[in-house]
């Protein structure tokens, strides 16, 4: 998955499906290695970290084993993009002045854009007793306790619990169902299921197939693909 999510043509449809939107048309991948505001702060590594065309910072984490304080870890991770937003705002402010001019003090207005931490989990999280056993997708943000008024849309935590997803191909509904089915069954599939025929699904399937090739097979496949693309471009140009 990490190699697949490094490709925009796969990552963008995934984010639109998880966030139930169609507004993300491009993303800018950012450094997965992050420091705090001082050298003494702990360094963290994300699986994927990107900024979307509609102004959101998104972290995607894939976690195979249960971790006691994983929810707290997600909150900790979300603090780094927020710190970066401050640094980016300050940098953008300073770029207005040349090196020789006297710069006024930077005063930040604290305006933030949304941060999403999306976790794909290969284990079942702990929930309230009334939580449905087959509900695999949970979405948390800051709310007032009694009237559930949203305090802020800035911090968003999404958890996808793969063991809770048990649908068969015939019961698949929307794109998030398709993603979950592929996540769980990719290693057993020989081809893309008929009702899954979308460009990004074929791309994901091809990426997974290539990842399992031996080094020589992978090189030959990529060379064959290049010859095919070159030939198609010649036809299109003619």
Describe the structure.
It is a single chain. The protein is α/β, with parallel strands linked by helices and 238 residues long. The chain has one domain. It has helices spanning 2-5, 8-18, 70-94, 175-185, 199-211, 215-237, and strands spanning 27-29, 33-34, 44-45, 48-52, 57-63, 115-121, 137-141, 155-161. The strands form 2 sheets. Strands 1-4-5-6-8-7 form a 6-stranded mixed β-sheet, sandwiched between helices. It has a two-stranded antiparallel sheet with strand order 2-3. Helix 3 (70-94) links the parallel strand 5 (57-63) and strand 6 (115-121). The model is unreliable at 225-238 (pLDDT under 50).
Mean pLDDT, as a whole number?
83
Radius of gyration: 21 Å
Largest sheet: 6 strands, mixed
Structural class: alpha/beta
Strand order of the largest sheet: 1-4-5-6-8-7
Percentage beta strand: 15-25%
**Count of DSSP strands:** 8
- Global shape: globular
Characteristic key phrases:
single chain; 238 residues; alpha/beta; 6-stranded mixed β-sheet; two-stranded antiparallel sheet; disordered C terminus
């Amino acid at each position: 998955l990490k190699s697949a999510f490094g490709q925009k043509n796969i990552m963008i449809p995934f984010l639109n499906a998880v966030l139930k939107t169609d507004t993300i048309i491009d993303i800018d991948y950012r450094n997965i290695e992050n420091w705090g505001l001082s050298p003494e702060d702990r360094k963290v590594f994300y699986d994927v970290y990107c900024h979307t065309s509609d102004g959101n910072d998104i972290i995607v984490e894939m976690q195979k084993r249960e971790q006691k304080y994983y929810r707290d870890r997600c909150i900790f991770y979300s603090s780094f993009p927020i710190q970066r937003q401050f640094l980016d705002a300050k940098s953008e402010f300073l770029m207005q002045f040349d090196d020789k001019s006297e710069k006024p003090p930077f005063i930040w207005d604290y305006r933030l854009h949304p941060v999403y931490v999306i976790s794909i989990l290969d284990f079942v999280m702990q929930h309230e007793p009334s939580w449905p056993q087959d509900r695999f997708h949970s979405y948390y943000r800051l709310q007032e306790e009694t009237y559930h008024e949203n305090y802020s849309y800035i911090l968003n935590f999404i958890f996808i619990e793969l063991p809770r997803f048990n649908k068969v191909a015939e019961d698949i509904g929307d794109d998030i169902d398709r993603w979950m089915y592929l996540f769980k069954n990719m290693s057993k599939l020989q081809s893309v299921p008929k009702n899954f025929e979308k460009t990004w699904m074929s791309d994901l399937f091809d990426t997974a197939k290539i990842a399992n090739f031996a080094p020589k097979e992978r090189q030959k496949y990529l060379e064959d693909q290049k010859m095919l693309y070159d030939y198609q471009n010649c036809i299109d140009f003619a």
